[in-house]
Amino acid sequence: MSDIHSTELPRISTSTSTTPPPPISILLINPNSTPSMTAACLASLQQSLPQACSVTGFTAPALTSPSPTSSSSIPSPSAIEGTSDGVLSAAACLHALIPTGLAAQHDAFLVACFSAHPLIPALREEVEGPVLGIMEAALYAGRMLSGRIGIVATGKRSKVMHEDAMRQVGLAGFSAGVVSTGTGVLELEGGDEGREGVLGRVGEAARVLVVENGADCVALGCAGMTDMKGRCEEVVGPEGARVLDGVGIGVQFLVGLVREDWNRLRVGFMGVRRRGGGGGDRIGFRWWVSLRSRC
Q1: pTM score above 0.90
Q2: Using CB atoms within 10 A of its CB, is residue 202 exposed (0-12), middle (13-18) or buried (19+)?
Q3: Residue 174, Cβ neighbours under 10 Å: how many?
Q4: Which of 4, 77, 106, 203 could hold 85 in an S-S bridge, CB 3.0 to 4.6 Å?
């Protein structure tokens, strides 16, 4: 009988002679109109960006400034803190991305809002590449890595919405709860109590989830928390818990999907294009054409 420890197992690996992978272009979409959050998301990706991958940041148009892609832009809220914010921001992003052709320039799309944002399913109806939200990315990764997932939320409304989202994606049984920091989205940048005060609130929420609620994975429940991952790791890392940032994880997921050529489904209801077949005029084709002509 051969010694299993001396048997060489089959293995494959990349080599310098391997043809470089084709470039992948990901559009990171911040559906609110606060550019600093887009910049923070992009900065967080610098150290982990895969080979031959670029990420372009898009910020939804603000009320006081014209869209870089449209002279007649629809404004988006400065923060997404409820259902109405989500609907308004989805409309603003669709208007800026689809009729202008900007979305068609990219291979995959990451919606940088930690919620079941309506822009995610809307984009899946309109683009060829995969579309992922940072909440989906963080929760699915958490399920792969851990037994119990906790979420650090901003305000009380976000807490309720995250709890609902956990149930909707079928992960309520693996939830260690959602803890609110009591801050608004825009207050994450400092607000009246300063940066250290906000970092303290976020770190304390992570501690409660791990030490008191039993979470072994903590998800940062807002794109504005991306650069706070380090503080949370300082607090809960000694307890053996992981901290998940859906921005970085989402990019890795999307790269994998594009590399495997897993784009949007072309069968079933997701395969029915708004511009396809004889029913295009009935379901809104002329609406998109009219928008494109105005951009």
Answers
A1: no
A2: buried
A3: 16
A4: 77
- The answer to whether 171 and 149 have CB atoms below 8 angstroms apart is yes
User: What pairs with residue 167 in β-bridges?
Assistant: none
**CB within 8 Å of 246: residues ≥ 6 apart:** 114, 133, 134, 135, 136, 137, 138, 141, 219, 220, 223
Q: Which long-range contacts (CB under 8 A, 24 or more apart) does 163-169 make?
A: 165/115, 165/116, 165/135, 165/139, 166/139, 168/116, 169/136, 169/139
CA gap 38, 51 in Å, rounded = 21
Helices 134-145 & 246-259, crossing angle to 10 degrees?
90
Strand segments, DSSP code E, in the chain are 24-30, 53-59, 108-111, 131-133, 149-153, 175-180, 217-220, 242-244
To 10 degrees, what angle do helices 229-236 and 194-207 make?
50
Q: Which two tokens stand for residue 61?
A: 């148009």
Q: Is the dihedral of CA 66, 69, 75, 78 positive or negative?
A: negative
> For residue 259, how many other CB atoms are within 10 A of its CB?
14
Stretches in the chain below the pLDDT threshold 70: 1-6, 15-17, 64-73, 190-192, 264-295
Amino acid identity at 88? L
